[in-house]
Amino acid sequence: MRGGDTVRALAAPTPSDLSPRSFMELLWKIVSAIILALVEGLTEFLPVSSTGHMILVKELLGLDTPPDRVFEIFIQFGAILALCVIYFEQLRRVTKA
Asked: Which of 49, 51, 53, 54 could bond 43 through an S-S bridge, CB–CB 3.0 to 4.6 Å?
């Protein structure tokens, strides 16, 4: 394998490399991720379980995510990180006191 072939083999497939069915599956995975991220972000501030809402949406839409919950962990980490960024100044004042 030449150097350029190695890089090509490691690169993500482009839409032209995929069959129409594979492309639609990839597109659905991206849309699913966006939907779940929106549900997590919108329900994070409610006094109810945002994880529960994600589970419900996954079941209602028939979404397949990895069984080891890595996807949900990263979505929740993103929401927590966003809260830390938004409330950084207040968190800093609390930790100094």
From this structure: 53
